[in-house]
Amino acid sequence: MSGKKHIKSSVIRTCKRCGTSGDGKLFAKGGKGFCNRCSKIEWEKDNPDKVRAQRLWGNAYKRAKSLGWPDLDFDTEWIYKKITEGYCEATGIPFDLTSVTRASNHAKNPWVPSIDRIDSSKPYLKDNVQIVVFMYNVCKSEFTHEDVIKFCKAVYKKEVEIGNC
C-alpha cells in the first residue's frame, strides 16, 4: 500500500419537495428526489388505505401490550385486505375510505374502518377481531352485539312509527 487514504466522496443532494440538502443517507432509494421525510409523506399521500391499516394495527398493538396480552397474530396487510373488501363485517355498511386519515378522523366520520374485538374480554387475535365501521365499534365498546341490535331495532321501529321510513 502506498499509504494514501481513499476517501469516499458523497454526493450532496437537495430534496425536490422541502429543499433539504444532504448526503445519500438522507435520501430514500427510489425516492424520486425526495428526502426520507418527504418520501414518507408522498408514500402516505399515495397509499391512504395502507396508512389506515398501519394505524389500526399500531393502535391495537399498543393496547394489547399495555394489557399484557399476546402479540397480534395478524399484520397490516391482513387489515388492509379487509379494508379494501369495502364493507363492515358486522353490519355490511360500506366503509368511507375517502376521508383523510389523521388522528381525529374517527371523531368526525362514523363510517371509517375500525378494529372490533368480538369478545371484548379477549385479546386481539384473528378469531376475535373484525373490521367494522367506527360507529358500530363505539356502540360495542361498552355493550354487546345483541345490545346494539336491540337498540337499532328500537330506533328503526320509532322511525317507522313517525313516518321517516
Describe the structure.
The chain is mainly alpha-helical and 165 residues long. It has two domains: 13-45, no CATH class; 48-161, Herpes Virus-1. Helices cover 41% and strands 8% of the residues. It has six helices and four strands. The chain has helices at 36-46, 48-66, 76-85, 105-108, 134-140, 145-161; strands spanning 13-14, 21-22, 113-117, 129-133. Strands 1-2 form a two-stranded antiparallel sheet. Strands 3-4 form a two-stranded antiparallel sheet. Strand 1 (13-14) and strand 2 form a beta hairpin. Helix 2 (48-66) packs across helix 3 (76-85). The chain is elongated and about 75 Å long.
CATH topology of the largest domain: Herpes Virus-1
CA radius of gyration is 23 Å
Give the helix level as a range of percent: 40-55%
How many helices in DSSP terms?
6
- Please tally the β strands and state the result: 4
- Overall shape: elongated
**Spatial ordering of strands, largest sheet:** 1-2
The N- to C-terminal Cα distance equals: 89 Å
Query: In what range is the share of β-strand residues?
Result: 5-15%
Level-2 CATH architecture of the largest domain: 2-Layer Sandwich
Indicate how many domains the architecture comprises. 2
Order of helices and strands: EEHHHHEEHH
